[in-house]
Amino acid sequence: MSVTRTGEPGIPGGPAGADPHRWWALVIIALAQLMVVLDATIVNIALPSAQSALHMSDGNRQWVITAYTLAFGGLLLLGGRIADIVGRKRTFIFGLIGFAAASAIGGAATTSGMLFGARALQGAFAAVLAPSALSLLTTTFTDPKERGKAFGIYGALAGSGSAIGFIAGGLLTEYLDWRWCLYVNVPIAVIAVFGAFTLLHDRPGNKGAHLDVPGVLLGCGGLVAIVYGFSEAESRGWTDSRVLGLFAAGVVLLASFVWWQTRSPGPLLPLHIIKDRNRAGCFLTMGLATIGMFGMFLFMTYYLQGILGYSPVKTGLAFLPLTVAIIIGSTQISARLLQHVAPRVLMVPGMILAAGGMLIFTQLTVDSGYADHLLPGMLLTGLGMGLTFMPVFATATAGVAPQDAGVTSATVNTAQQVGGSIGTALLNTIATTSGAAYIAAHLTNPAQMDLITRQGTVHGYTTALWWAVGVLLLAGLVAGLMVTAKAPKQTMSTGAPVPESAPRT
Fold first, then answer.
1. How far apart (Å, rounded) are the C-alpha atoms in residues 100 and 223?
2. Phi and psi dihedrals of 10, rounded to 5?
């Protein structure tokens, strides 16, 4: 029997306290989340065209990607707390408008600096938009069965958004212009803003709360330093003094942030959120899973275009089975089973499946076929990610007090974004190093330069993907040992709601 929350009137035709327009609200929330997630990858395929048009150097072109991820990952905690203080609906609408404006500026960019600045602005507004979207979802769907379906759809978009970005980027670049990879956000945001005004409802913000300014400076500064350090390691190497300095600064700032949160009267990140065993396990699982996933996206994109010679559109479409598998895993399997089984019963097999898919990718050669190597790997990896992401989002945000919904949602997004940044930089460095070593060891005949270079490049990819297999298995281990929550149906059958924001074991 479901539990009716005190003070929430029942609505005919739906669970007690449910918003009658909640499913249309989900469409608006999902649309905004999809825009934020796919924008991390939609410009990847367009990057060569943008580099040529704006005369970027090879050393600076990475900033089209890094400016977005740096601002997004570094400012998420701030965005989450702003949503809690100001109100999630207001923050959501503000984020949409700002994101659309930044996208328009980027699409109209006439210099590389203008494009870099616009991408950083996009990341900053995404950091406001993403946590407010997830926390609106958390407060809109309170019935366990409906919550499972809603988070299944949200998890599918969070997991497949990057792959959808590749498809959209390829189509827009090949048939329109690279600038449309940015302009496309404007009509999406306009639709979402009108929908948000009409369909979304929210409790008022906590006007008595104050923004934890020292926490903002320490926490956001530490995350920016860490993410920036990983992005620089890709080109400079792990032992470079700037890279080591950024990592050291990030560790010191984050340690100071944790210390300050125990003393701040209004902490940016209340530590009881991350002290909760289940939430901490979900945050770690999410971070580790995205390390492997983003590394796979990077290598498969270069493999398809650089080794197999695929066009941008064909490359994007090659990711379609991965997207479909993630959606099936989230909406048709996880969402249906989560009410009946403990979250880790889905998360652990999910990570094992994803690791199995990645294991297939480790067997790639310069002439591997799509149907016999790439397709099975994508299907297994996508299904595993779909099984994992939905219960991670649902479990991490379950039982959170309304005043903490924004910052909890931001922490999930931060784990995903930082994991993606680490995965891209770490695995790319491993691939580059091992590929160069292979070429140096095997290049004895200059006439074979092209073949050996291609073999060395693929060897680098497969070496890094072996590391990704290990990381995904580690994610499964973390989920199995740390996420001890019971099935939501079992929790509700006790007749008492889960204490909001209280640590659970």
1. 25
2. -75, 155
